[in-house]
Write a structure and sequence with these properties.
Blueprint (H helix, E strand, L loop, with lengths): L6 H18 L2 E2 H12 L7 H14 L3 E3 L7 E4 L4
Antiparallel strand pairs: 1-3, 2-3
Helix pairs in contact: 1-2, 1-3, 2-3
Length: 82
């Protein structure tokens, strides 16, 4: 089944993920999701966490963010090589 994303919402969530990771460094999926949700809770029409999950997966696939090796719990960080 095809999933269609609103580009404006994608861009807002994308920018939030980048800014949060730049400001706070590596964090877990849950921590990052909560920070994005807190930031966008007012005025975001739709599920912030749904968009967060899709955008985070896309950013991982493109190599913009990465899983921190051997971190427990699993942490996500900006890929400094991009």
């Amino acid at each position: 089944k095809d999933v269609f994303l609103n580009r404006e919402k994608y861009d807002i969530v994308y920018a939030s993920i980048l800014e949060i990771l730049r400001m706070h460094g590596p964090m877990t999926f849950t921590q990052l999701g909560h920070r994005v949700e807190e930031r966008l809770q007012d005025g975001f029409d739709g599920s912030v966490l749904w968009y967060f999950t899709i955008v985070k997966l896309d950013m991982e696939a493109c190599g913009e963010i990465q899983r921190v090796v051997n971190s427990k719990p699993q942490l996500f960080s900006l890929n400094v090589n991009v």
